[in-house]
TrEMBL record, chain B:
Membrane-spanning segments: 16-36, 57-79
Keywords of the record: Membrane, Transmembrane, Transmembrane helix
Source organism superkingdom: Bacteria
Source species of the chain: Kitasatospora cystarginea
Protein name: Secreted protein
């Protein structure tokens, strides 16, 4: 292990930290509507999601041999400094959007970070913009729309088919179904996103000569990536869960099942077809469609607009931050230390700001735009369990 | 350098996603409907109620088995 230099160690730690933010940022994707409809109690939901994310990490290492899927030129080997700068931009953007309660794509943040850092480190030719367009931009625009349409149609159909039945009984059935659809999304998320971290660590180890070229991730890398994403998931990005579960629309069990089924289907179909898309955007699109397909179609358009703006901003914003970080990191060891300190400081201050208005398992369902009569379920608050996400990131 | 965008593949992905979602949710909803019918039938008891209950239960089982199949297929895609 004498190959592991200071920078490589820093990259591995930062990659695990990114994986952690990825986990708590994306808990909402699978679990927001399940929590909102009362299909699962908040604490139970995040525990299930965490276990499935961890299990998902072990299911496949197929895409762990590439970081970017061809977006940046990896042939020459990505410099650890570029990867470090990319991770810094992705983590900071993830934390900022979490603070604002906005679901944004962790994958896009990572891709944006890689693009920004590569442009600075290797020049504009290091980025395959055609691949960016065909593999990221177009699927990013299309997938939430498809998920939204499918969820809208499915919601309409679910209400039509179960009309005239006792709502209590049918809701019970739809809630049960949600457990399966939500679990499927969690598992797919663990498989997809944990592999990105595995890929980053593995390729960094390869570039440092600690692993031979083309090596599959060692078990400790798989377990580490799985554990980081699971821990993050368990912390629960409650702010985002609140936005997605109750902030966009008043989601009832048939709508929850429809949106989750649409999201799971779009994610699985697309990855089978080779499109890497954003779980976050697909799930949000599904929730919007289901909200509009409900009995009294209502959608918080202001919130929807903010989400869409954030999606558009994610890639360029992460790219700019990472590009700046790459400039500093290039200056040598003091640059790495400076950027590392900036990351810790930035994460810490965002965590402190979040403490002013903590959102946790006890109050996650409290704010609903539409007066909900029966579906709001508030668990006993217990000791305040604020997600200590950012602080742990710093420590990680 | 230029990558042509495969619109057909994109449209196919979208179409399949849409159709599968609608189908799965429809089948699941029929299952829920059957369960509701069964519950209603059991509540009103009577001789006819029991038979109607059995038929509904069978329908519900078929529907939920089909949905379970879809979930299992999804699992195989994840692990694939």
């Amino acid at each position: 292990m004498e190959h592991i230099t200071f920078l490589v160690a820093v990259v591995i730690i930062t990659a695990l930290a990114f994986d952690f933010t990825n986990g708590f940022h994306d808990t909402a994707n699978a679990m927001a509507t399940s929590i909102a409809t009362g299909a699962l109690k908040p604490k139970v939901a995040v525990a299930i999601a965490a276990v499935l994310n961890f299990a998902g990490a072990f299911l496949s290492v197929k895409v762990a041999t590439t970081i970017s899927g061809g977006i940046v030129n990896e042939k020459a080997g990505l410099q650890p400094s570029i990867i470090f700068a990319a991770l810094v931009g992705a983590i900071l953007w993830n934390l900022l959007t979490w603070l604002k309660g906005l679901p944004s794509s962790s994958s896009h943040a990572l891709y944006g970070g890689l693009i920004g850092a590569t442009v600075v480190g290797a020049g504009i030719n290091g980025v395959n913009f055609a691949t960016v367009l065909s593999k990221i931009v177009i699927p990013a625009v299309a997938s939430p729309i498809v998920a939204g349409l499918a969820a809208w149609g499915a919601t309409k159909l679910a209400y039509l088919l179960t009309r005239g039945t006792d709502e209590k009984t049918s809701d019970k059935g739809f809630r049960k179904g949600q457990m399966f659809s939500a679990s499927l999304i969690s598992l797919a998320h663990g498989t997809n996103d944990a592999q990105k971290t595995m890929g980053i660590i593995t390729l960094t180890l390869v570039s440092a000569g600690a692993l031979h070229k083309g090596a599959t991730p060692p078990v400790w890398v798989i377990a580490g990536a799985g554990a980081a994403i699971a821990l993050g998931t368990y912390m629960g990005g409650w702010r985002i869960i609140r936005s997605m579960g109750s902030g966009l629309a008043d989601i009832r069990p048939p709508q929850g099942l429809s949106s989750e089924s649409a999201a799971a289907t779009v994610i699985l179909t697309s990855s089978a077809m080779g499109y890497g898309l954003s779980t976050t955007q697909v799930c949000s699109g599904g929730i919007m469609g289901a909200g509009l397909g409900g009995r009294n179609p209502r959608l918080n358009w202001a919130m929807a607009r903010r989400m869409v703006y954030t999606w558009g901003l994610t890639l360029p914003a992460a790219a700019v931050v990472s590009g700046l970080a790459a400039v500093v990191v290039d200056q040598g060891t003091w640059g790495i230390v400076l950027i590392g300190a900036a990351l810790v400081l930035g994460s810490g201050s965002m965590y402190l700001i979040s403490r002013r208005q903590p959102v946790h398992a006890g109050n996650v369902n409290d704010v609903t735009p539409v007066t909900a009569t029966e579906t709001v379920e508030v668990t006993p608050a217990g000791p305040v369990t604020t997600p200590t996400a950012a602080s742990t990131t710093v420590a990680a | 350098m230029s990558v042509s965008i495969k619109w057909a593949a994109l449209a196919q992905t979208a179409g399949v996603s849409f159709a599968v979602t609608i189908a799965v949710v429809a089948v699941f909803s029929v299952g829920v409907l059957a369960l509701c019918r069964r519950e209603a039938a059991l509540e009103t008891a009577g001789t006819g109620g029991a038979t109607a209950g059995k038929g509904s239960l069978a329908l519900a089982s078929v529907c939920f088995t089909a949905c379970a199949g879809a979930v299992l297929y999804g699992l195989s895609l994840i692990a694939g």
